[in-house]
Automatic annotation (TrEMBL):
TM region positions: 7-30, 42-61, 68-86, 98-118
Name recorded for this polypeptide: DoxX family protein
Organism: Mesorhizobium hungaricum
Keywords recorded for this protein, A-Z: Membrane, Transmembrane, Transmembrane helix
């Protein structure tokens, strides 16, 4: 489980770094983003920072077996995943739904499954 959390953290962190470093390129590269409205580089960078913070929380939480770090990271990632699920209810193509489930929903909600396994009594320094 720790390895999976670290991999999800690296995935989310890479996305955040991409958003921060090249918001215009991120906007045109990520499927479905251009359909959400015009690009706003400042806003894309702001969200990139949220992805980086959540990624740090996942990685630190996994390495230190700290459930509170996982909970905090999951506030953004899980909320983002649930937002995408809710928006799917208002009409989306099957292909877009599969893409969002694979790339946003699963990586956003999987860390929640790890929280109960991280017993605070077994925390490592």
């Amino acid at each position: 489980m720790r390895t999976l959390l670290i991999l999800i953290g690296l995935y989310q962190g890479a996305n955040g770094l991409f958003m921060l470093a090249a918001p215009a390129l991120w906007y045109v590269t990520i499927p479905g983003v251009t359909a959400t409205g015009p690009a706003n580089p400042h806003f894309i960078r702001d969200i990139g920072l949220a992805f980086i913070a959540a990624a740090a929380g996942l990685i630190i939480g996994a390495l230190k077996r700290d459930r509170w770090m996982l909970i905090v990271a999951s506030i953004f990632l899980g909320g983002h995943a649930l937002l995408h699920l809710a928006e799917m209810q208002h009409g989306t193509t099957f292909a877009d739904a599969l893409r969002d489930i694979a790339l946003i929903v699963l990586p956003g909600l999987l860390p929640l499954a790890a929280i109960p396994a991280f017993d605070p009594q077994k925390r490592t320094a």
